[in-house]
Specification:
single chain; globular
Amino acid sequence: MLALFNSAGHLEIAINKGDANLANGASGLLGIKVKDRISIEFL
């Protein structure tokens, strides 16, 4: 799994070999969708 802030300041979340159009994509596996609010805690 990978999470990064892009050049526009948006958070992108990805899963290696996941497909956004299938249940094995990050949104399906994490139960989130575009524009959902999430919180991040930096340790």
